[in-house]
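Check this:
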Amino acid sequence: MLSIEPMDLHGPIDWALPPSKSHMMRWLALAAQAEGETVLSFDSEPGEDVLSMAECLRQLGAGIEQSASQWSVTGVGADGFSEPEGVLDCGNSGTAARFLTAIAAGLASAVALDGDASLRRRDLSALNSALREFGCEISSDAVPLSVNGPAGPGRAYLEVGSSSQPLSALLLASPGYSARLHLGLSEGSVSRGYSRLSFELAALCGSPNRLDGDVVVIEPWRVSTPPAVSIPEEVSLLPMAMLMSELHDAEVEVRSSGIKLTPALMALAEQESELDLRDESDVITPAATLLALGRGGRITGAAHSRGKESDRILGTVGLLAAFGMASSATEDGIEVPGGQVPARPESPVQTYGDHRIAMTAMVLASKVGGSIVNPEISAVTDPGFIERLTGLGD
């Protein structure tokens, strides 16, 4: 538990963002399958989810050398991944679990995967159901599980209404497959930017596969990565800096190489009262808090955030209530009255094993104080978050 006393902060506040987890984990998957070496460069420290992914890829035969600002990845090339010794521990990362399950499906041997208590509660059935259609045997729809491949040719229905990761996983693992996959995608796909990112990065590495319409054909291909890759900042954590600025009425200067605001972040910056988070549900907790402090509003399109590390809709409502602010859950989001002022919580603030709820709680506590349960979960995305935040009060 972390106790934080109110801070008297004045701008400008210097703030750093960690490297993008989404970019780094995709580049790791690609570089691990390429011939030769790929150097990934970044600022700040990668989160524990990225570290889990890297360690699992080492077990599968990739070489990964880490230093403070760059990682050198030596891929397995045409030899392909090898059978790992022991269990692939995905830690807290649903992304790693899905990517590695799809990779394991390309091997002609049993591969076991596991993770922490939070990951064991997450539903992996969308990807696993499709892989079973391609001939794989998968023991469970949650970790711990075992995968027996290899995946063969065929057609499968892929549910993408709760996560885009199954589609990304199959694309990124397809260099290890021996046959073409035909995928019929469900309606109402979410987090579409992450799927597009996967296809864009794969195309840079020689993939002929494209994302067009509701039927996708994925061909096996040979990965050829650039020799050097620069990883951008984790833009989905920018609302934490926006929240800090709003709470302390202070300018926050974010160190970056040039952040491009997404539609949801632009709407937050312009204080719009209607936020559609179909493609950006990761920001729901700080976004709801910003609405509460501002003019209020309604978040929609975020039903799939119930399947994150926590039920992030209910978790956000609970977090706001802990700080004396009202909100109400809807089927696909949250309604939030505006003009609210946070108060110091009377009891320790629960974070539900969710790093984004934990980070939002700590930012709120920097204004009014409070004790935060399991604050260290923030390290799955941003290992420097606690030290950086608490250091502002020195």
Observations:
- The chain has 13 helices and 19 strands.
- Residues 21-218 form a domain with the UDP-n-acetylglucosamine1-carboxyvinyl-transferase; Chain fold (CATH 3.65.10.10).
- The chain has two domains: 2-17+235-391, 21-218.
- The longest helix spans residues 355-368.
